[in-house]
Amino acid sequence: MNLNMTLPQRPLTIKRGVLSLPFVYYFSPPIILALLVAIFYMEGPGIARDLQIKQAPLELQDGDINGRCRTKKAIFTSCEAKLTYTYDGVKHVAETDFMFVDLHTGDYEASIVISKTDPQLATLSLGLSMLWNRIISFLAFGFLLAAGLVVLLLTLFRILRSRGTIRQPGLLSLIPVSITASSESRGGLSLTYADMVREDKTKRMAFTQLEKGAEPIVIGESKGHAVALAVWHEHASVPVLLDSRMERINLEREERADLLRSLSDQGVIGEHSEIDPQAKSQPFLQSVKVFVAAVLLLLVALFGYWLWYVFAAPSQFTSPAMDINNIMPGPLNRWACGHLQARFGDQNAPFGCVADDFKSWK
């Protein structure tokens, strides 16, 4: 809808309390930062140690390994062990722990590997074989946490900064915003909205709490979301959603009456300004669609990776490909094992294709 409405062309102020902030934005950053520090503290030193061992590895035939690996959520495996070994007549005791992502069932086999140049550095052969897996997992988790922390802090900073600037006089510009989520709260309406509609959109998100009886000024719909009217203060970092009473801007009585009359004449305020209950479910439906699309994309990627393993992998022991092959339906698993045996038949069979003796092909 094209509105024929103009705000007074003079510096205006906006009332206090029109920009809200969910409580999660206050306590989430410290928690995410703590998780980020914990991941670097727990995984960083072990990866650095194993990278050094990998430069000059020496696998020991004797030694005592006291530890275990545990798998959580089907793919996250964490291992910890106390290693006791003797090298050049000197007894050493070391501890190792690491985490990796793997689709694996059953036990892992491991031996003690030390550094030839520094025998005090010791790890498990499993940790070295999964080293790139560990590095990628470490960087991926670190990146996701860091990205989430940056997004939260930017939103927090923008809203807190705008709370102060909108109370100072400044020119206001009318803009459309997309209402991405809504819920009833404390007798009013809690709304999440974003600058996603206009051509020079910033995609910045903001939150507001409308009082009981107040409604947003809905002027249309875009991509399944209601489009409402907001103003952008020239010194603010996020827009401010307007209400159907035009009470959020500090106006003269005559100015407010003229704006309300204009909105009423154009059929904007009144029954059309209420958010359709179906629109409230759009964020959830959109999330479901995104989730289903992500799952399908993941399945396609895993299937492609499995085909690469069958036809082009340099080793039949490539992980986690052999674990994926193990959970394939019987006909697909037998077909894949047949192709793998044709390529690696003179070697031991991998997990998923191995017979009861754990060596020959089934």
Quick recap:
The protein is α+β, with helices and mostly antiparallel strands and 362 residues long. The protein has 8 helices and 12 strands. A hairpin with a 2-residue loop joins strand 10 (218-222) and strand 11.
Notes on the structure:
Keywords: Membrane, Transmembrane, Transmembrane helix. The chain crosses the membrane at residues 21-42, 135-157, 290-311. There is one protein chain. With 362 residues, the chain is α+β, with helices and mostly antiparallel strands. It has 3 domains: 30-141, no CATH class; 166-280, no CATH class; 283-344, no CATH class. It is 39% helix and 24% strand. Strands 7, 8, 9, 10, 11 and 12 form a 6-stranded antiparallel sheet that branches. A 3-stranded antiparallel sheet has the order 1-5-6. Strands 2-3-4 form a 3-stranded antiparallel sheet. Helix 1 (24-55) packs antiparallel against helix 3. The radius of gyration is 30 Å and the shape is elongated. The N and C termini lie far apart (68 Å). Mean pLDDT is 85; it is low at 271-282.
Q: Please mark out the parts with pLDDT under 50 across 5 or more consecutive residues, or reply none.
A: 271-282
The pLDDT mean sits at 85
- Main sheet record: 6 strands, antiparallel
The SSE order reads: HEEEEEEHHEEEEEEHHHHH
Keywords: Membrane, Transmembrane, Transmembrane helix
Write the layout of secondary structure elements.
Layout: H1 24-55, E1 57-59, E2 64-72, E3 76-87, E4 90-101, E5 112-115, E6 122-124, H2 125-129, H3 131-165, E7 172-185, E8 188-194, E9 205-210, E10 218-222, E11 225-233, E12 240-241, H4 253-265, H5 277-280, H6 282-312, H7 321-326, H8 330-344
Antiparallel strand pairs: 1-5, 2-3, 3-4, 5-6, 7-8, 7-11, 8-9, 10-11, 11-12
